[in-house]
Write a sequence for this structure.
């Protein structure tokens, strides 16, 4: 996975206007604002409207953090999105994923060690990215493990992070300090 050429430089705090400061203030983590937000703030109205949806996916989803991160990491890997991958390796570890599991996400559902539901999540991500729908076999497995809201969160998690991966790769958002591939 290669880091794409930077096309849009993240705006630094000295470049923010009042509207941008207001939007970015709650996104500061220990004084740091991630490059994704410092890039997307170039379109403040878009960022402001996307954030509630992204907040649901990352923080209010009916999926467990582990399940969510399996999906997000698979999307990041399949979309060849280094920023997404590097950020969510860190978040995935906080959600309980082990280094070996993170490596197996690269291989997908066929890698040894996944539970039936975890393999179905990986297949769902692959199918959504490849065929823009979850196939019947994977759907049958998912419905045996997840309720309606969780099934919807699976689809919207993959959709959100494929969109984010497209933006990050196209704009060439650089990795934040301390992240590595």
């Amino acid at each position: 996975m290669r880091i794409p050429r930077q096309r849009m430089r993240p705006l630094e705090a000295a470049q923010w206007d009042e509207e941008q400061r207001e939007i970015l203030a709650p996104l500061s983590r220990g004084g740091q604002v991630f490059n994704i937000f410092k890039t997307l703030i170039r379109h403040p109205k878009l960022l402001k409207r996307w954030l509630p949806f992204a907040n649901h996916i990352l923080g209010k989803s009916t999926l467990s953090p582990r399940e969510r991160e399996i999906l997000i990491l698979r999307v990041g890997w399949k979309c060849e999105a280094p920023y997404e991958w590097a950020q969510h390796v860190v978040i995935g570890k906080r959600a309980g994923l082990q280094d070996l599991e993170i490596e197996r996400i690269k291989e997908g559902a066929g890698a040894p060690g996944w539970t039936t539901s975890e393999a179905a999540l990986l297949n769902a991500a692959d199918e959504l990215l490849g065929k823009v729908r979850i196939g019947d076999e994977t759907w049958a497995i998912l419905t045996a493990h997840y309720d309606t809201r969780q099934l919807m969160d699976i689809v919207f998690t993959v959709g959100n992070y494929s969109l984010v991966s497209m933006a990050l790769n196209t704009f060439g958002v650089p990795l934040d300090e301390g992240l590595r591939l």
Q: What stands out?
A: Residues 13-59 form one domain.
